[in-house]
Design goal:
8 strands; 38% strand; mainly beta
Length: 119
């Protein structure tokens, strides 16, 4: 299991509820990215953890990853960055993104632990 601690939540993060999108970024996020990102710090380093069927817990909600973009794992490992879209059904996925269900926008707080695991 990969765990990460939420360090900061950008002031614009709630505005993405309409798009059902959360942008995760590691502590190296630039000042331009911080307002739109959930900034987190890994407790342990991920290694190709994002797969179809991977579970991710954000706040009190657990999601299942349905699609993984072609560069999502590399971006997540190197930068702590993925864009998580909460949708159902098959849709085009951006290279640095994952699509997860259910279609529920998470409530995330500073200090929360993000958990990612494969059964």
């Amino acid at each position: 299991m990969i765990t990460s601690k939420v360090m900061e939540i950008g002031e614009s993060v709630p505005e993405f509820k309409e798009e059902m999108l959360v942008i995760l970024f590691g502590t190296s996020a630039t000042p331009e990215l911080k307002p739109i990102s959930v900034i987190h710090e890994f407790n342990n380093t991920p290694d190709n953890v994002l797969q179809v069927g991977t579970k991710i817990q954000l706040g009190d909600q657990t999601y299942s990853i349905n699609q993984v973009g072609s560069s999502a794992n590399q971006n997540f490992e190197e930068l702590g960055h993925i864009s998580v879209y909460f949708r159902s059904g098959q849709e085009e996925v951006l290279p640095g993104a994952v699509i997860a269900s259910p279609k529920v926008f998470p409530t995330i707080n500073v200090g929360d632990e993000i958990k990612i695991w494969n059964d």
